Predict the 3D structure of the following.
Amino acid sequence: MGRIENIQFDATYYPVAVLSFTFFLYLFKYVSPSLSARLCPRFTQLSDSKQIDWHSRVNSSLHATVVSAFCVYTMLYEKELNEEPIWWDSPMVRTSCAVVVGYMTSDAVLMAIHYKHIGEIFYFFHHGASIYAYYYVMTYGVLPYFANYRLMAEISTPIVNQRWFFDALGYSKTHPVYISSGVLMTVTFFAVRIFTMPTYWHKVYSVYGTEDFLRLGHIQLVLVLTCFVLDLLNLVWFYKMCRGVHKVVVAKFDKNRNITNLKLD
């Protein structure tokens, strides 16, 4: 790995990142508190800690929805991404990455400020790795296919957050809505974050060592090291999800069995 060849610094998309950063801080501080109280009266009964987490997840869900829409559109209409996965300059992908960098930076700031409520070391590693990777795509326009492919993971985020909202609002863990949301969360998370791993790494393998790949210089780390860290974190989170779903399903099964036994008695 050496210097980057024939590539220039480009700050064109930095205003998008700054706007994204500012927008999500404003959403967290002012918009979410007001709308949440109006649309969900039970929100006001939550503890301060859960309200902070709630606003953080509102940010997360909106960010994921916007980025996922960009991602799907690009996959459907920019066929050049697959043909030139390293050097195709895609304004849509670079805009998505700028939004991600701005959001991730704002979320890291909020986690640091409210660390005792929403701070988690895994998320700092995740955000750091994501910012590092998408910074290069936003700035230099490289690796559009790989960046867009990784952004598919955001499709699962609103569903993960919805499950948390149900829990925060006091839904019983054996309630059908709670159980179905947990299963949907786990299946979706697996589909877009775990199942997609082999395809991603096969694509990396297909370009590894090529002339286009070698021109990347140290940005090669984005394809390999950064995404390896992110995949490890996703595997850890998926394991935790599976354990949680298993506990809920077992509790539901035991409850139904106890009710059946009482009726038989």
Summary: The radius of gyration is 21 Å. The chain has one domain: 14-264.
